[in-house]
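WARN retry 2 of 3 for item q-0093 after timeout on previous attempt; input resubmitted unchanged.
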Amino acid sequence: MDYLERTYREQHRQEDLVHFQITVQETDLDIGVRRERFSPELVGWIEETIRACRKPLEEYIRQDPGFLKALVPYGVPEHAPLIVKAMAEAGQSAGVGPMAAVAGAVAEWVGKAIVKRSRDVIVENGGDIFIRSTRLRKVGIFAGNSPLSNRVALEIRPEQTPLGICTSSGKVGPSLSFGKADAVVVLSPSVALADAVATACGNLVQSEEDLERTIEFASQIPGVSGCLVIKNERLAVWGSVKIMPMKV
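OK item q-0093 returned
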């Protein structure tokens, strides 16, 4: 299947950036930075940044295994690591378990670190994206077997960034979803929140009739700036989302 080879990554790569992949255990990132900022040293530093991001999360899960398994909002103590609290808060807002936000939370942590070294940054983690840009960007949408897959894209303006662009699907990818959406895309300044809400929205879509209530649900969550849902040949959109043809 295509998603196993992560061919969808071609939909967000930018010609003016150098893209490269770094894998640390389960974390598999596609990263884009400005050409003049790329170096083997930067790659090594980002790998260490990923390890530093994962370490407190891994240690917390060992102490509190319920955090890993929860499929509903899960409380954590005030002294929990920042990434753990961010995931728990995102899950609480979306009505899902904290691990629904893990890919977005990691992308955001790593992306914000890289921004200190490159003004343009894209970090993609399993379909969940952190983007910071000084120019207009076009991010394509992969929606499995839908006729709209790879045909529509999001236009992202510099003033919208830093921004989280997170995708959930009931048909594509290994992540858990109880729905049947071809793609749900959620935008938020918080990548962890966008990730959790995309999962929650994806769970709501069983048929084409569910598109309207899904974007209505997303619109009620503070911090969410936009939502797009694709099911078969239908598309619904709400908020600060500008769509355009993938190829012009």
